[in-house]
Amino acid sequence: MEFVLSPTIGYVVLIGVGLAMAAVVTMMVKVETKWLGTRKTSEWFYTAGRTIKTGLIAASIVSAWTWAATLLQSSTVTFEFGMAGAFWYAAGASIQVVLFSIIAIELKRKAPMTHTFPEMIYVRYGKHPHKVFLFFALLTNTIVTAMLVLGGAAVVNSLTGVDITLAAFLLPVGIVAYTVFGGLKATFFAEYINAGFIFVVVLIFVLAIYFTGPTIGGIPGMYDKLTEAALLNPVEGNVAGSFLTLASAGALVFGIINIVGNFGTVFVDQSYWQRAIAARPKSATGGFILGGLAWFAIPFALATTLGLAAVASGVILTEDQVGQGLVAPTTASVLMGDVGAILILTIIFTAVTAAGSSQLVSVSSLVTYDVYRTYMKPSATGRQLIRVSRYTILLFGMGMGLLGLALLHIGLSLQYVYLLMGILIGSAVAPIAMSLLWSRTGPHTAISGAIVGLVAGVAVWLASAYAIHGEITVLATGDTIPMLAGNISSISTSLVICVAGSMLTRNRFDFQMLRQKIVVLDEKMRSIIDRDADENMLRRASTISKRIGLAATMTVVVVWPAPLFLSGYVFTLSSFTVWVWLAALWAVAGAIVVIVLPLFEARRSIWHVISHTDSEDHNDVIYDQDTVMGTPSISVLVPIDGSIQSLRAMSKMHNLLQEMAGVRLYLLYVIEWPEENKETDENIMHQMQKEGYLVLQSVVVPREAGDVHRIVKVGDPSTRIVEMAESLHVDMIAMGRRGLGGTDDTLGHVTQNVIRTTRQPVILLD
C-alpha cells in the first residue's frame, strides 16, 4: 500500500510536534508561576485557581469537544448523507455544551467548592450512589480516551504508514509530559493553542477548496459535481437522492443518535464539570454558550468542505476505511497533496493531545478526590493529593494506547463506538443533572434511573439488532436502527424514572449542605470563592443561561432544519452559495472568539510578563501593589523585617527620593526558614505567607511614595534579598545596619551577607 506521506513525517508529528507542544505549554505555565504570582497548590492543579475568564473557557470547550471523531466523523456522515450530515453533526453535538451552561452556573450557586461532580453526589446521596456515578464518570473518560487514541492512530497509520500500535503509544507522550507538570492550567493553555490552530486550518481548507483551488471549481463547481454525483449514485433516504438537501432520513436518524448520545459525553464527562469549576462565576455562562456556538462552526465548515469535496472529487474508499474515519484525510491529500495531508494529520494530532490532556486531568481528579481522599485517606494534605494525581496521570497516560488498541483488535470502528456511547452512559444524564436542579430527587431514584436506564438501553439495542438481522454481531449491532433504539431507551427510561420518583418524594434536599460539607484546603482559595459568591448575579446568570440555552436548542434542532426537512427542499446554486458562506463566516466568528477574546481578556497579564515588572520566582510569593501612572525613574528594594531599623530605612529612603518623579519601592519581607525544609505542607506555607503579608500591610507608606510593591518570600533572608534585587533589576538596596537580631556589631549578619554577595549598590540607613 502506498502512503501519502512518509513514515518520517509521521514520526516528526508524533514525537516532534508532541514534544514541541509540551515545551510551549510548560513554558506558559512556568511564565505564569514565575511572573504572575501563581502558587502551585493542589487547588491550582485541579481548578486552575477558579479564575478562568470567558474567552479561555470558550477556547477550552471548543478544544475539549473537538475530538478526532469531530474532525473525522463529521466528514464521514457528510460523505454518506450529503450536506445534511454536516449540519446534524454540528447541531446534534453543540446544544449539549450550550445547555451545560445551566449546570455550570447552578454549580457556582450551590456547590462552589466542589472538585468533581461525584464529590457532589457523595454529599447529596451518600456512599452507594457515589460509587455508581463514579463508575459512570470513569467509564465515560475511558471511552472518550479510547476513541481519541483510536482515531488519531488510524489517521497517522493511513497517511504515513507508521505502525498503528506504535502510533497509539506515541500519541500520549507529549500529553503526559505537560499535564503532569501543569495540571488543569496546562490543559487550558494547550487547548487554547489547539483551538486556534484548528480554526486556522479549517479556514485554510474552506479557502483552498471553495475559493482558490482549481480542482473543484469553486462553489458553482462543487454544486455541479454534487448534482451529477446524485444522478450516478443517489443517496438512499434523501429527497431525489440528492446530496444537496436536509431532507435526509439517514442524516436525521444520525442526528437523533448524536443528540442523545452526546448528552452523556458532556454531562457525565468530568472534564466539562472541571471547566465549570475553573471558571469565574461571571464567566461560566458566557464561556459555555460561546464555546458551544463557536464549536458548531468546526464540524459544520470542515464537513461542508471536505465531506462534500470527497463526493464531488469521486474519492473511493472501502467500507472499513469509511468506518475508520478516513474520508477527511484522504480528501485533503487528494485535493491539496502533501500540504493537505500534513494539515489534517497535524490538527488531528493536536486535537487528540489537547482533548487527551483534558481526559487525563479528569481521571486523575476522580481518582484523587473520589477514591483516594474519599475512601483511603480523608485527611490527605494538598501535597499528597498532587502526588497521587501525578501517579494517576502517568499510569493512565501509559494505558491510553492500550485502550485504543483494545477497541481496534475487538473490531470496533470509531463510528461504532461513537454511536454506542449514548447507550452506555446516557442513563446517568438525568440523575446527575437533577442532583443540582431538583431538590426532591432522592438517592434511590437517582440509582434506579441510572442502572435501569442502562439495562433498558442495552436490552433494546441487542433485541433490535436480533429482530432486524437475526443475529447479534458487530455488524448487526452497529446498524443505525438498533443504535437509535438503544440510545433513546437508555436516556428516556432514566429520565422517566427520575421525574416520576422525584414527584413522588416529599423530602427536599438543602443545597446549603453542599457548601458546608465540601472542603477546600487552600484558605486563599476559600476567600476567593466567598468573595465571588454574589447570589443576585448568579441568579441573573442562571436565568440568562436557561433562556439562551433553550432558545438556541430549539433554533438549531427544530426551527432551522424542520422547514427544510418537511418541505423536501433541494438547494439551488444560490441557496447553496449562501449555505457555504454561512459556514465560512461562522468559522471566522468562532476563530475570533477562540483566538482574540482570550488575548484581550489577558492583556494586563501579558503586559506584565512582557515588561518584566514582577519577580522571577513567585512560587512562594504573595504579591500586592499600589500602582501609579508613569514610568519610574528609579527602583529600590527595601527589606522589612518588622524592626525599628528597617522601618526607619524605608522612611529615610522615601525622604531621600521624594523629590524624584516615579520612584518604585519594593518592600520585601522574608520569612526565615531553613532551605532544607522548604518543601513544607502548602497549608503551613500559606499561613506563614499570610502572616508576612499582614506585616507588610501594617507598614504605612506615604501616599506620595510612588509605585509600591509588597512581596513576601520564604527562606534565608540574605539569599532571598540578593535574589530579588537581581531578578527585579533594582537600582539599589536600602536597608538598616541591623535588624531584629539586635547584635552589638556594627552591621547585622543579614546586612553583612547582602553586602558581600550582591552586585547592586547597597545604602545603609539607621
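the 2nd protein, sequnce then structure:
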Amino acid sequence: MVLEKINQENDIKKLEDSEWSVLADEIREFLIDKISVNGGHLASNLGVVELTMALHLCLDFPKDKLIWDVGHQSYTHKLLTGRREGFDGLRKYGGMSGFPKRHESACDVFETGHSSTSISAGLGYAMAREVTGDDYRVVSVLGDGALTGGMAFEALNNASKLKSNFIIVLNDNNMSISENVGGLSRYLTGLRTAESYQDLKSGITHSLSNIPVYGDKIVERIRRTKNGLKQLVIPGMLFENMGILYLGPVDGHNVQAMIKMFKEALKVEGPVIVHVRTQKGKGYEPAERHPARFHGTNPFEIETGLPAVRQEKANYTDIFSTVMRKLGDRNPKVVAITAAMADNTGLKRFRNMFPDRFFDVGIAEEHAVTFAAGLSAAGLIPIVAIYSSFLQRAYDQILHDVCIQKLHVIFAVDRAGLVGSDGETHQGIFDLSYLGSIPNMTVLAPKNKWELSDMIKFAVDFDGPIAIRYPKGEAYDELKEYREPIRLGLCEIIGEEQDVLLLAVGSMVRTAVAVRQKLHEMGISATVVNVRFVKPFDGEWMMQNSSNYRLIVTLEENVITGGYGQQVLSFVNELALDVPVINVAIPDQFVEQGSIEQLKQKLGLDAESIVSRIQDIYTKLDF
C-alpha cells in the first residue's frame, strides 16, 4: 500500500508522481472504513483529499503553517502527518480529535471548530512573520460556505495591507453543511462557469508570453496589478477590488494542476486567493448524492450508507421539527431562521411547507440574530434555531439588538449541554451562563419531549426575548403524567418528599429521578423539582420551601460559573438559610470528546456520582 509509506510529515514528497492517484484512492478507502465505525465528518474530508495532498507536496512541515477553517476536513492532513494509527480512537475519549489540535502535532498550528476564522488566524501568523523576520509560509483553507460569515470579510479587508505572501485557498464545493445560499454563492457560481473567461485569459497570456524579451515581464506585471487582466474581462472582480490577487478556478481533484497553481501563488508578494473547485463526498456514492447527510455522520454501513444503528425514538430536534410545522399552519406570523443548518436544526419540513417564511442566512449567526430582531420589530414572530455552541458567536447581537429593545425573538437552542464526540468547540455548555447574564432574557429548559412542545407554544404567545435550550439525542419520553401548564417563572414539583431537594434543569430531570430512586434505597427521601425557568428564578417557591430540607442539590448540564446552581447558592446565602448546597455542574473547563454517557461519568454528572456526593455530605449533617 502507498499509504503505508506515509509515516511522518513530508513523506508524501518521497512518492513517485504515478503513486499520487493510488494514494488518493487509498486515503478515501481508509477514511470510509474508519468513519463507518467511529462516525465523523465524511463528505467534507472525501472532498479535500487531492487538495490536501497538493498542499503537502508544496509546503514544508512543520515549518510552514497550514490553517483549516472549521477543521473538520483535516483528516487527510492528519494522515499525511503520521497519525494513521490514531484513527482507531478518532473522536473517542482520550483519542484523536476530529479537529486540528496543537497538542497532537506540531503540524496543527491553530485549533479550529467554528467557521470563518482561518483567514484571521492565518493573517496573524503572516503579520507575526513580518515582525519577527521568520521565513515560513502561511496557507489558510476555507470553504465557500465560510465566506457567508462576516468575519471572513473583516479578515480579507485587513489582509489587503499585507506586504508578504499569504495564500488563502477557497475550497469551493457549493456546500457549507446545507447547500450554500445568497449572493456570494451566486457570485462564485459565476466564476465557476466563466469558461469563456478562462479560455480568453489563457489565450491572451499565451500570446503575450510569446513576445520576445518583454512578453514574460508584461504577463507578470498584469498578474500583479489590481487593474489587471481579470478586471478587463470581469469588471468588478470582488477579491481583486479588495487588493487581493485571485487565481483560478482550478480542479481540486487534479494534484498536478493544483501544484502548478500553488507554486504560482507562492511567488506573490502579498495576499492571494486560490479558487479550488471540489466535490463534497467524492469517491463514495452515498456521500456524493447526500453530502449534507454525510457532513457529520454516526457509524454507518459502507455498502448502503445507512446508519449502523437505526434511531427508534424521536430526538429533540425531531420534536421541534413537528411543532414548527404545526405552528406554521396555525400562526402566519411565525417565521423561521437558521444559519446554514436547515436539516440539522429540524427546519427542513417548515422550509418545504412555508418557503416564504423560512430564511437560511448562511454561516452568519450574528446577522441571523439582528435580522430576527428586525423581523420582530416589524411585527413577525421569528424563531431562530441554532446550536448552543454557535449561538454564543452572536452574544452581542442578542444583548444589544434583541434584549435591550425587549423584542419578541424566540431562540431554539439545539445541542445544549454535552454533545459528545465533536469535543471542546462544540459542547453546548455555556448557554445558561451567557443567556442568563442578559437582562430581559427568559430562559427555559424542558424535562421531556412533551414539555419542549409546550414551551415552544408558550414562547410564541410570550412577549419578549425568550430562549429554549434542549439537548442532543433521544427525547426523554417519561413523566408524561407531569404536564402542568407553563406559567412564567414557575417550577414544577415531581414527587414532594423530605430530606433532600433536587433542583434539576432540563435534561438533568431524568438524572434527578434516577438519583431519587437510589436515595430511596438508602433510606433518604427526596423531592425532585423541574426548574423549567432558569430565568426568571423562582425565588418565591424557594423562599417558602427551601428551609424545609436538610440538603439542596442543583443539577445542570452547564458550566458551574454563571449557571443555575450559582443562582441558588447566592439566594440561599442572601437569605442566610442554614442549609448546605451542592452544585452539580460541569467544572470550569473545556470538555474534550467522548460519548455523552462517558463524559457525564468523568464530570460527575451521572446518577451514581451524584448519589455519592450527596451521601458524603448527608452523613456528616448534624440532625
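The chain is about 40% helix and 15% strand. The chain has a mean pLDDT of 90.
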